[in-house]
Design brief:
The protein has 13 helices and seven strands. The protein is α/β, with parallel strands linked by helices. It has three domains: about 45 residues, no CATH class; about 210 residues, P-loop containing nucleotide triphosphate hydrolases (Rossmann fold, 3-Layer(aba) Sandwich), CATH 3.40.50; about 55 residues. A seven-stranded parallel β-sheet has the order 3-2-4-1-5-6-7, with helices on both faces. The chain starts with 6 loop residues before the first helix and ends with a helix. It binds guanosine-5'-triphosphate and magnesium ion.
């Protein structure tokens, strides 16, 4: 039997009942039909939130920065949600607990919502699930949604694909600048935050980033990524970082790029679901089909066509 979502849940959601939000998120995360129905009901009410990706290596201070950014946002009376994508990396074993404790102080504030996402068992993968949760948080009425995730490219959520603005957090003295350059992740930053500026090597890292940025050809009206110097643990440089985020959003609006970013997000979400669907189909195919491909009786192209044809 196909259960439909109760109208009571929807009413409570729109009345900003946090438990209804949590329930809605669980339903969406579960990948059940009900979750998708719910999402469909909520989605038209969204589209207003600013989505900010916070990324950088493990331990660079992303959670501490996010916590400080929440404080600035609350001073400005913004409603804030944070999605902490559970790191899969072995270094970050205790990170989730750390994040919880750090951000615990927001527990009593009904305008702050913090949620971590587990890395497994999502319809369409973690990236799609994260986006679906973002859509719910947006519809619920959060003004700012932060997504914290470790690394770029290799990570399960490609933050560039999903955020309006990406803040790349680098730290001095660990060759972070060089590594970021080598890994080709400099381009993903709309804003740089050199965190732990209290440690030696901050100015040097800043010069390295500037040198790389200068290699780019700037056309009039293009966005030049600003570099913030922050000491998140002491709350320094945070307002400036916040202002850079606001400025970038204004740039997206005035240049018409915001629309492109949103379209890109929808594309990503659709593609993630298709990928998952196709993967499921491939794994469900009988041995004969797979053997035919293996022994060259059926070309890869034919196999793909056949899989895509069946619905
Ligand atoms: N010296 C110094 N330490 C900092 C600064 N910001 C954060 N830290 C410390 O760095 C450690 C890691 O901070 P987190 O905010 O947990 O870093 P993270 O990037 O969220 O870490 P993961 O989620 O595990 O990748 C903590 O012990 C912080 O107190 C800073 O500006 N200076
Ligand atoms: Mg963290």
């Amino acid at each position: 039997m196909l259960l439909s979502v109760s109208t009571a849940l929807i009413d409570r959601f729109f009345n900003r009942d946090e438990r209804a939000l949590a329930r809605a998120i669980s339903l969406v995360e579960s990948g059940l039909r009900q979750g998708q129905q719910l999402l469909q009901t909520m989605r038209p009410h969204g589209g207003k939130a600013v989505i900010i990706g916070i990324t950088g290596s493990p331990g660079s201070g992303k959670s501490t920065l996010t916590d400080r950014l929440i404080a600035v946002a609350r001073e400005r009376d913004k409603r804030v949600a944070v999605i902490a994508v559970d790191p899969t990396s072995p270094y970050s074993g205790g990170a989730i607990l750390g994040d919880r404790i750090r951000m615990m102080r927001w527990h009593q504030d009904e305008n702050v919502y913090i949620r971590s996402m587990a890395t497994r068992g999502h319809l369409g993968g973690l990236a799609a699930a994260t986006l679906q949760v973002v859509a719910l948080l947006d519809a619920y009425g959060f003004d700012l949604i932060f997504i914290e995730t470790v690394g770029v490219g290799q990570s399960e959520v490609d933050i560039v694909e999903v955020a309006d603005s990406t803040v790349l957090v680098l730290t001095p003295g660990q060759g972070d600048g060089v590594q970021a350059f080598k890994a080709g992740i400099m381009e993903i930053a709309d804003i740089f935050a050199i965190n732990k500026f209290d440690l030696p090597g901050g100015p040097r890292l800043k010069r390295e980033i500037q040198a790389v940025l200068e290699l780019n050809q700037w056309t009039p009206g293009s966005w030049q990524p600003p570099i913030s110097e922050t000491i998140a643990s002491q709350g320094q440089g945070i307002s400036e970082l916040y202002e850079h985020i606001e400025a970038h959003y204004r740039h997206l609006q005035s240049s018409g790029k915001l629309r492109q970013v949103k379209q890109q997000r929808a594309r990503f979400e659709i593609a993630a679901l298709i990928t998952e669907e196709v993967r499921r189909k491939v794994h469900a195919r009988e041995q004969g089909f797979i053997e035919a491909v293996l022994h060259g009786q059926m070309s890869l192209e034919e196999a793909v066509k056949e899989l895509l044809r069946e619905s």
